[in-house]
Amino acid sequence: MSDDQWGAGDRSNWSNHGFVMVGAERRPLIYGEHPHSRSDNRHYVEMDGEAVGFDGHRILIGVEITASNYLKGSHYSGSEVRKGGSGKITADGEVVFEFFTRDTRGALLRAHHLIGELSEHSSGWLSKEARDRLVGRKVYYRGVPAVITRLIVDQGCVILETEDGKPFPPPVYRDAEDEDESESSIKDEVLSPHIWWHRS
To answer: What is the pLDDT of residue 174?
Structure first.
């Protein structure tokens, strides 16, 4: 074991692996030449020119659940105080998804499910660097070639436009009585099953 090599090694051989939060600061995450632990971990954080061994969270995930009551007024059935609330998922301190809830325990379960989905999602939504690359990305929306033109990050939504600038065709499930609401720009959740991300 005396010939084991440890440490980040030669700076010219470091690989950039994005950024991580250390306290309130974004720091470069690097992949070094040699491990810093017996678990063969070669990730380091560059801090003030030095490579410091990294065994932290790649993305800091947070959940905020807020319960509330509100007055629902109705001319027909009378007024009633109802329960409500919101759930928020944060990534590195930024709200990246928000949802309505009426039940705190149910909201915690939904947040758990959403974090799992977002962690594995093709958009890379939890990563700021991945989100920054989404505008201009080509996707399919309900089978139509489309482009992401804008993000509404705190709502977990994207704005899509058809690639050819024409309105999106109406969905097949639209009722015949519905007015024609063909749109050339649509807002939908990043997790929407209508978005197909694997378009070359």
So the answer is: 66
β 185-189/195-196 pair status: unpaired
Q: In what order do the strands lie in the sheet with 185-189?
A: 185-189, 157-162, 144-152, 138-141, 195-196
Alpha-carbon separation of residue 177 from 128, 142, 171, 172, 192 (angstroms)? 42, 21, 13, 13, 25
Q: State the pLDDT at residue 6.
A: 83
Distances (CA, A) of 176 to 5, 121, 169, 181, 182: 71, 34, 14, 12, 13
CB 151 within 8 A of CB 128: no
Contact call for residues 45 and 28 (beta carbons, < 8 A): yes
User: How many percent of the chain have pLDDT more than 70?
Assistant: 94
Residues in the chain, total: 200
Residue 145 to residues 94, 187, 200: CA-CA distances in angstroms? 30, 15, 11
**pLDDT for 160:** 98
- Longest Cα separation, the chain: 83
The burial of 113, by beta-carbon neighbours within 10 Å (0-12 exposed, 13-18 middle, 19 or more buried), is given as exposed
139-178 confidence digits (pLDDT tens) = 999 999 999 999 999 999 999 999 999 999 887 776 655 5
